[in-house]
Design goal:
By secondary structure, the chain is of the alpha/beta class. It has one domain: Spore Coat Polysaccharide Biosynthesis Protein SpsA, Chain A, CATH 3.90.550.10. It is built from 13 helices and 15 strands. β2 and β3 form a beta hairpin. α1 runs parallel beside α2. Bound molecules: guanosine-5'-diphosphate and manganese (II) ion (MN).
Length: 324
């Protein structure tokens, strides 16, 4: 197997570590961390803040995923700083790499155009692999099959406030499927045909569109055009069974068949956001306003009484909520 759980033996070290405690949190949930070995310093910093603000009381597990094998150092240092059990998985080849159905000549031309136009990550194939993986594959990984809810964590992010209510249990008890802290506009040059492709899918499958959906969040003209609004997906607390649903899976397969992850540079943020806005009810999407969070260069800092309640250490005046 290309997957190794360190809830066993790892290069002479016995796991679980003393630090790994039985789970106290009541939800079927895990943290999910996609990372590269060289990001270790930024990863352990994110983990330390997650433990400090939340998980030291709950001991939810962590699943680390990588397209390459994790190094012993990565496993050592990450397993040391968390209170929940840890597992490390390698991503199956076809869930990560550009499919052979993609016309590489056309994809390369598009990358070169984007580089010329200064599109961020426009020349990167690995960034496209990452966006496609996060859009349609992470929740199919064998290490995640046993879990329903997840919290995505990235290297070098901050968690500013004590989290006293379990957000996984909150989603479950309120029948919500997607939680965010920051939303913003996507660069149009990365997704020129994403909305036309989405509309084509919806014409084929109108039955998947939820009643009382959040179309108004993503379109200002009743669906004619996409307004580029999306949830910033480096932070997500969400329900993987929603991504595993027929509606979203068919949507992802349709998008993937059009090749836009490679011929353009479709991000997992607009793809997840459009999926959530169309296939879930508006009331199933949740703004976690009490969770202080930063991913450079933006942050959500809870305001007023919430700032006090959470003992937040962010500057309240630095808050993205009402920025463009
Ligand atoms: P940004 O937040 O859009 O600037 O992109 P990041 O560089 O932070 O990448 C997003 C997430 O995917 C982070 O958790 C990265 O660690 C991870 N990631 C990006 N590219 C790769 C890659 O090639 N391999 C692996 N294993 N993880 C990656
Ligand atoms: Mn990032």
């Amino acid at each position: 197997t290309d997957t190794e759980s360190v809830w066993g033996t790892l290069e002479g070290d016995q796991y679980p570590r003393a630090a790994h405690k039985p789970q106290i949190g009541r939800a079927n949930a895990t943290f999910v961390i996609l990372a590269r070995n060289h990001e270790i310093n930024d990863i352990v910093q994110s983990l330390a803040e997650m433990e400090h603000t939340f998980n030291h009381q709950y001991h939810y597990p962590y699943v680390f995923l990588n397209d390459l094998p994790f190094t012993a150092e990565f496993k050592e240092r990450t397993s040391k700083v968390v209170s929940g059990k840890v597992s490390y998985g390698q991503i199956p080849h076809d869930h990560w790499h550009q499919p052979p159905t993609i016309d590489e000549e056309r994809a390369r031309k598009s990358r070169e155009d984007m580089v010329r136009n200064d599109v961020i990550y426009g020349g990167s194939v690995s960034y496209r692999n990452m966006c496609r993986f996060n859009s349609g594959f992470f929740f199919r990984h064998e290490l995640l099959q046993q879990y329903r809810y997840y919290w995505r964590i990235e290297p070098g992010v901050n968690f500013f406030c004590d989290i006293t209510e379990d957000p996984f249990v909150f989603l479950q008890e309120n029948n919500k499927v997607y939680g965010f802290t920051i939303s913003m506009y996507e660069y149009e040059s990365t997704i020129p045909t994403l909305w036309e492709t989405t509309k084509e899918f919806i014409r084929k499958h109108p039955e998947y569109v939820a009643k009382d959906n959040a179309l108004k969040f993503i379109s200002d003209d009743r669906g004619d055009s996409y307004n580029m609004c999306h949830f910033w997906s480096n932070f997500e607390i969400a329900d993987m069974d929603f991504w595993r649903s027929e509606a979203y899976m068919k949507y992802f397969e349709f998008l993937d068949s059009k090749g836009g992850f490679y011929y353009e540079r479709w991000g997992d943020a607009p793809v997840h956001s459009i999926g959530a806005a169309l296939f879930a009810k508006k009331e199933q999407i949740h703004f976690f306003k009490e969770i202080g969070y930063r991913h450079n260069p933006f942050q959500h800092c809870p305001q007023g009484a919430l700032h006090t309640k959470g003992k937040c250490w962010c500057d309240e005046r630095n808050n993205f909520d009402y920025e463009r």
